[in-house]
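Appendix B, record 7
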Amino acid sequence: MLQRRKILISFLAITVLQGITYPAIALGSESNAMQVSSNSQTAEPNQNSNSIQGGDSNTITSDADDASQFSDSASESTQPNSVIHSSRQNRNDDRPDSSEPDKNNDSTSPNEPTKPDKPENGWDQNKEHYYENGTMAVSKDVFISSSPNNRKDGIWVRFDENGNLVKGEDHRNGGWYYFDEETGAMAKGVKHISSNNGKWVYYDVVTGKMAHGEAHLNYDKEHTSWYYFDQNTGKMAHDFVYLRQHDKWVYYDKITGKMQYGEHYINDGWYYMKPVTGALAKGRTWLDAGKKWVYYDKTSSRMIHGGAILDGHHYFFDPHTGAQYNKQQIIDRLTSQARALLNQHPDCPGVLAANGGLICPFGPCMAFVWYIFHSAGLDIFLCDGAKTGWPHHNYDWYRSRGRVSHTPHVGDIAFWKFGDAWAHDYDASHAGVVVEVNGRNVIIIDAAYGDIGIRSAYNGANYAHPYYDE
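Structure tokens (predicted):
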């Protein structure tokens, strides 16, 4: 029995030394050793027990003549006990370990989360990431068709650097984009978003990039027009905008944002936008639809109504339509107003004073003339709008401009120099308005003798000619 054990130990030692180079021999030796060990355990259990525990190792090593070279060449760490332990470990490796999951069993514990599959193309099973040719889409835009067989219909989406779907506003590639908060679909066309207290913007129908500045849209019937989007925020304009590159003012509708053309009533005023360019008209303009000449302020472009001095000329525009009056229409308006005041008793000096004018203490005649012009809306035609009830102030103004003669015309202002004027060295002391001229018969309306009446002109009149320019 002792001889058999010596042979076994020698064989095991040689096997361990050569096992790295000859694994087949080592495995075979281990199998034989296991068989021998099994037999020994059956025949002599006490000796086998001592051998495993290493209590009799010195004896086994000293009696093993054939294994003396192994004992001398091996280091102290390579003892028979270690060999036997390694053999036991190898036997255990062949047995299933209940503490480790069976690698051949594909079943998954219900408590363990399911890892998303990585498809070749499309969404993972949790629809969190998207794959193209087996690679997750990151930092890129992807077109996702509505169905595998339909490549025309679908949506563009964007994935960030982590492969997550981008939603809401996103700045990339030098521009702003918007992606639906639910689906992530890239916005295209006109859209209302909540930023900047709410605004309408436009995203290019091809690229999805937010538009800035002037843009012509024609992607559908509803949005075919010129628009303007703020250079910084992209907000659609709904008001007057100055286009510097074209040196023109234009107007975009308050609701649709479309550039407007033709006549429009905006903020209590009339404007005209030229048919082709949309530029706001300035100055004297012919409106074919109304068959009239009108005038738009050169600064504000708003239509002018009433009297105005423009470029050194005196004009009157209808208070309602803005139509320019010619000379005869202005005169007719003045004389009609004068006749309407016959037998009336307006407080002409009081109204004049209320409007900042000077009152003449010698009588209301000039205050009445001023009142005719004022109530007719023709203030600028009387001394360019000067407000004074002194007759000689008005007479001197016209005479200094060469606008006084002895020849009367309807619409002229008649002046006389009566007694008080001589005493005070005034060139005029009474005034009235000429309403008719029939040869030598000149008819005036004035305030005299305590009333307003129509009468023949007094002798010695001089006539001032207001600027009734056409």
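Remarks on this record: Residues 15-101 have pLDDT under 50 and may be disordered. The longest helix spans residues 23-43.
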